[in-house]
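INFO  loader      accepted 1 record
INFO  loader      residues=337
INFO  predictor   begin
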Amino acid sequence: MRRRGLLVLQLSACIVALGNCQVYNRDCGHTAFCNDLFAFLVYAAPPSGPRFIAVGNNGSIYYSTNGYSWSSDVGPGGGNAFNDAAINNGFFLAQGNAGLTAYSTNGTDWTSGTISGATGILSTRYWNNRFAAGDTANTTVFYSQDGITWDSGRSIAGASALYTSEVFRGSLVFGDDSGKVYSTTDGVNWNTGTYAAGVTRQMATNNVVLALGDDNGDNFYSYDAVNWNSLGSVVTADPTGMAYGNGKFVCIDNNAPNANIFTSPDAITWTQGVTIANSLTKITFGFGLFVAVGSNGPNGVACTSTDAVNWSCVTTGAQQLNMVAFGYVYNGIGNDI
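INFO  predictor   done
INFO  writer      dumping tokens
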């Protein structure tokens, strides 16, 4: 009886302690929300296993449970490249050229699929209870509730090739290759913002400010995805990847065969950090880690850091890596927590 009473007291104390907590969930649109019961359930029964997923050329997919060591290639193969990946509630999705898709429920076993009408998917997000995939050729966004069956898509009027996307304050945001950014709250009606005249390389957010980098080496920030402020040439080459985590934005400046790392606490003031002797293109944050991927010669490479200062890099395989994403194997509660 004493043990049972002690357990009740411990659980009660835990719930009280979590009363002012915030649970941060990337798949809820980067929204920090407070829910005592949900928070308690998350920490009492956390997701069963973290997964970093890295996708690359020739249908290659690699996974890691710790961000440092990687599996062999578990992808479907073929000649088309995967360009992006998204994860929600233990459902893993990779997408790329010629409408190629692959999906998995554990990050290790994958099933191939296609999006009819898609020519090249460069960016995929989970948003508003569905997956959204932006096409580069026909400026169309395709939607799917399960990541397997896709609709015929909706075109964004006035847009050109869709290069990158982000979920910001509940809105789905796409950037194209002509210096324009499109945001929507319903997936049908789009607001247009103009920042410059370059190709949108990558965006990242802490749900307060949205950071953006273009292929001219310029960085921008916005508080509404419509009105943009220019910072000029922050990086030295090409800001191909951005992520937010541990209270900082991290930007990859891909100056092949090297990559320069820039950091910022607010997406406005940027500081140049270390240079990594690999050509890195994309980055994500999860499990307390920044993980960046790219290539070293013909091989794929993944670099990992807890602070964006000290990095550990490993060769993953024979295929260049184009994107990395983070989530959890589903246990009935959720992922990306």
